[in-house]
C-alpha cells in the first residue's frame, strides 16, 4: 500500500541499501544472540523488495509480457544461489584469515558492500509508474502515453471506481482469487524447502572437499535459470499459466520420488536437477499469473500482492525444519513432505483455473450485447 503513495525509485532502493548494510553487519556477529537479532532486522529490510518489484513490473508490462520479465527478475535469485557456492568457495580459500577475519565474515562484508552500491545505482536508474513524470529522461511524452494506454486496455474488465486505500484493502481481503494465489505460492515456497539445505544434500554425496561440494551445487541452479526463461517465454506466447506451472512441478515430483527411493548417488544428483529446475521453472508463471489476476485498482493490486507474498513466505519458515540430520543422506521424510506440497500446488492450479474460468464467463455475460470486447483473466 505504501508503494502506491511513494516513488518506487526511492522506496525500493532505500530498502535494498538498508538490507545490504544489515547483511554486512552479520560479519560482526560473535554469538547466536547477535545472529538472531541481525536476521530479524534483515527479514524486515528484505520483506518489501519482492512484493514491491513484482507490483512495479505489473504496472509496466501486460499479462502476455509479465512471465518472461518475472523470469529475468527471479533468475537473479536462482543465479545468485548457483554462484553463491562458487563465490563462497573462492572467498573462503582466498580471504580466510586476511586482516584477522574469517572467510565467512569477508563473505558478508563483500556481498553487503556490492549490494549497497547497486542500491544507490537503482535509485537513479529505476523508473517510477508510467503516468509519473520522474522518468522524463528515459521516455518521451508519447512513449509514456502509450505505456499508460496499453495497461488500461490490458486490465481485466472488472470496473471499480473507488480508488481509496481502504477500499483496495477490502477488495483484496474479500477476493477468493487472492487467497487461492496465496495458497499456490505457499505450496510452491514449501515445495522448494530444499533450497536452504541443498549444499548439505550435496555434501551427503561424499564427493570430496568442501570446495568440490560447493562447486557441485551450481549446475542445477544454472540449468534452472534457463528452464525458467523457456517456460516463461512459452507461457507468455501461449497466454496460459496453469498448465505451464503444473507441468514444471511434475518434473519436481519425479525428482522428489527418486531422491526418497534410492541411495544411489548419481541418481540422487540427477533427481536434484529435476526438482530444482521444476520448482524454479514454475515461479515466473506463478507470480505473473497472480499479478495479472488481482488488480481491479492499483491499491487492490498492491494489497493483494502483499497478502500473497507474506502468506507464501510462511513456506520458507517451516520447510527448512523438514530436514533432520538424523535422516541423512536421503532425507526421506523431507522429500515426502516436499512431494506433498508439490502435489498441492498442482491441485491449486486446477482450482484457480476453475475459479477464473467462471469469472470469465460472468464477464462475458455482462458484456453481451454491448458491442464491446472484454479483457478476460488468463488461465
TrEMBL record:
<feature type="transmembrane region" description="Helical">
    <location>
        <begin position="335"/>
        <end position="356"/>
    </location>
</feature>
<dbReference type="InterPro" id="IPR020846">
    <property type="entry name" value="MFS_dom"/>
</dbReference>
<feature type="transmembrane region" description="Helical">
    <location>
        <begin position="243"/>
        <end position="263"/>
    </location>
</feature>
<feature type="transmembrane region" description="Helical">
    <location>
        <begin position="210"/>
        <end position="231"/>
    </location>
</feature>
<keyword id="KW-0813">Transport</keyword>
<feature type="transmembrane region" description="Helical">
    <location>
        <begin position="178"/>
        <end position="198"/>
    </location>
</feature>
<dbReference type="InterPro" id="IPR011701">
    <property type="entry name" value="MFS"/>
</dbReference>
<keyword id="KW-0472">Membrane</keyword>
<dbReference type="Pfam" id="PF07690">
    <property type="entry name" value="MFS_1"/>
</dbReference>
<dbReference type="InterPro" id="IPR036259">
    <property type="entry name" value="MFS_trans_sf"/>
</dbReference>
<feature type="transmembrane region" description="Helical">
    <location>
        <begin position="37"/>
        <end position="60"/>
    </location>
</feature>
<feature type="transmembrane region" description="Helical">
    <location>
        <begin position="269"/>
        <end position="290"/>
    </location>
</feature>
<feature type="transmembrane region" description="Helical">
    <location>
        <begin position="72"/>
        <end position="94"/>
    </location>
</feature>
<keyword id="KW-0812">Transmembrane</keyword>
<feature type="domain" description="Major facilitator superfamily (MFS) profile">
    <location>
        <begin position="1"/>
        <end position="360"/>
    </location>
</feature>
<feature type="transmembrane region" description="Helical">
    <location>
        <begin position="106"/>
        <end position="126"/>
    </location>
</feature>
<dbReference type="GO" id="GO:0022857">
    <property type="term" value="F:transmembrane transporter activity"/>
</dbReference>
<keyword id="KW-0325">Glycoprotein</keyword>
<protein>
    <recommendedName>
        <fullName>Major facilitator superfamily (MFS) profile domain-containing protein</fullName>
    </recommendedName>
</protein>
<keyword id="KW-1133">Transmembrane helix</keyword>
<dbReference type="GO" id="GO:0016020">
    <property type="term" value="C:membrane"/>
</dbReference>
